[in-house]
Write a structure and sequence with these properties.
alpha+beta; 2 domains; 4-stranded antiparallel β-sheet; two-stranded antiparallel ribbon
Length: about 110
């Protein structure tokens, strides 16, 4: 039995087109938009603030040393640690990022 027939039997009146529209709405994504960039010659870092689709802002940081480059990307909006020196920590933990949101920043 197909999914559409099974849904109908369970009382969910739907069509293939309705399912397809719902799937497209649920799976659409947009890349984060860069809204601010700052660099520091002292520690050779570059910070990038990105606005997510829901309006939340996250940062990623590129750190350089003579031997290697490190890209720091978070997996959450905000942070539960609440470190005094960290603006992100002062926000508190707001939500986890979706996998595609993490990958889009790399």
């Amino acid at each position: 039995m197909g999914l559409s027939r099974m849904l109908d039997r369970c009382g969910f009146r739907t069509s293939r087109d309705t399912c397809a529209r719902g799937w497209r709405r649920a799976t659409t994504f947009s890349l984060p938009r860069a809204i601010k960039e700052s660099s520091s010659e002292r520690d050779r870092s570059t910070k990038l603030a990105l606005r997510l689709r829901d309006g939340r802002i996250v940062e990623c940081v590129h750190l350089q040393t003579p031997r290697l480059h490190t890209l720091c990307v978070s997996s959450q909006v905000g942070c539960a640690m609440a470190c005094e020196f960290c603006a992100t920590g002062k926000m508190g933990l707001l939500r986890n990022l979706e996998a595609w949101e993490i990958l889009a920043r790399s």
